[in-house]
Amino acid sequence: MRALALFSGGLDSILSMKIVIDQGIEVVAIHVNTGFGSLNDRLTYMQKMCDFIGAKLEVLDLKEKYLDEVLFEPQYGYGKNFNPCIDCHGFMFRHTAKLLEKYEASFMISGEVLGQRPMSQNKDALGIVQKLSLHDDLVVRPLSAKLLPISKPEREGWIDREKLLDIWGRSRAVQLGIAKEIGLEDFEPPAGGCLLTDVQFSNRLKDFVANDTLEIEDIDTLKVGRQLRLPDGAKLIIGRNQEDNLKLEATNSKKYLKARIVDATGPLVLFEKNASEADKKMAADFIVSYGKTEAGKVYDVNFGEFIVQGEKLASKDIMQKYLIV
Q: Which residue has the higher pLDDT, 192 or 314?
């Protein structure tokens, strides 16, 4: 017997897989990459967690489909920010279900806990997610199964319902106790893992879609640096540190130019092409102001296709009004 597990990397999904594996069922952990997580930073961690419990890890890249099918017109709306959680979970199950035959798996599991999130993990919401999966009778939630309607895998005896759990609510005491019991350490704190639930990122995304058409390559640029929208509409992204600079340097987007101060140390910057002359001058001043520069001195800022002279602002307060927060 084999099951496919939706694997976010969080403790709940790790434990749900462990419970099923302990029943002698092979588990393939499917991490769905929508583009709004931090996959590259977490892949080693997720592999470590899967190795510990004995699951195989597979990454399913669905960034393009997520933009097309979920993000902008969710049937069940958004949470507090830009997070269409109910539609998102249904989307993940629906596409994971397409892999059942490939992996010769019989059902799917997830780490969802009844009542843990009031909007997206109440009983009605979990039922909606199952319907959106198009395979609602093949979904098992091991951590709360005893509080939910019996599924086909339980009914048919593929999995022993008595060995599943009845966790409810936001307390993680039971999960932490199980983790300690099995010796699981260094797991991630419950921070959600999805940038769409983050206020700052959601505001950046809302600003972007109000001014441009979001494409897959735009997602990573929204994750990095100080982001400003200048008076005539140009987007400016300023690296805050060496890590940001390296990420911006690796960016390959047809929408932006890369810029640096010519004769001083300063941040790497992405600046929207086809900007107005006024926005170019303001961008140069902002870039110079964030560099190791002297007041009263004029610096050349190289945007690759052109050079603009900039001066250090007496105060950075002016930049605050253009920051996308």
A: 314
